[in-house]
Amino acid sequence: MTDTETETADAQAESAIAEASAVVDDVIDNVEGVIVGHHEEIEHIMTALLGRGHVLLEDVPGVGKTMLARSVARSFDGSFKRVQFTPDLLPSDVTGVNIYNQQTESFEFREGPIFANVVLGDEINRAPPKTQSALLEAMEETQATVDGETYDLPQPFTVIATQNTVEGDRAYDLPMAEVDRFMKKLHLGYPDEREETEMLGRVVGDHPIEDLSAVATLADLRAARAATAEVTVSEPVRTYATRLANDTREQAQLGVSPRGTIALLQAAQARAVLAGRSYVVPDDVQAEARVVLTHRVRTATDRPASAVVEDALATVDIE
Fold first, then answer.
1. Mean pLDDT within 49-59
2. Nearest CA to 17 among 275, 311, 289?
3. What is the pLDDT, as a whole number, of residue 273?
4. Domain boundary assignment for the chain
């Protein structure tokens, strides 16, 4: 490749990153027209979208988990479907089912709600593990298999799931195989006094989400994802991410999986796009590590998983 061709390619890459960053800024501004506070959490959801990941929102009821997911989904012009997980929900209620058509004397596949660009799985921990497992193939391979037939899901495809942290006797623990497929696990928390007062002012009368319209197209999201995938991750940064993961494995009964390390670097690539950069720096990795790694760690003692990740960030050297 000649110097001129290299310069042209670099200019095109920089332009794509600038456009992707602009799309993210537009969506964040749009969502913040509904959601008060939680700017950091909204950024985390956007980096997950750019990094081709899925998000788990965990907190007590009523803090805006579902509203946040809906606001992000409505900011794009793609398809959006919601699944309310309940104890009697069946896997076919998620993936779809084959229905016999008497006129054609054949079975026809009726798509379930998993066939959408953004799928909101509300209160996912209320469904039994068998139903939760219906998401595993979809989240990892963007496809669903029903009665031996495999169907591709729409692209792009993202799952935003919520679970509450109360009423444990009426909920199921998510299997680790499913937890590991979520790129990030976020906690919203209660708003402060100023934020809650502002929120109350917005929702008196018509709720602002009713007037929320799309500010980006699916083509914009696909282009932003493509630009994110091209962000450079140098060998020292890859080594740093690997050492963080290895440190958690040495400290805990179950440390970060290789899938988690991949997710960390994909999230870091998206974080670089938000900053308008075509390359990842260690700060990007550190900014994403807590929400990408912590839910993948299991300890044999009372020591919290967050402490394991914090210790790794504090002790692992950056080359």
1. 90
2. 275
3. 94
4. 3-230, 231-319
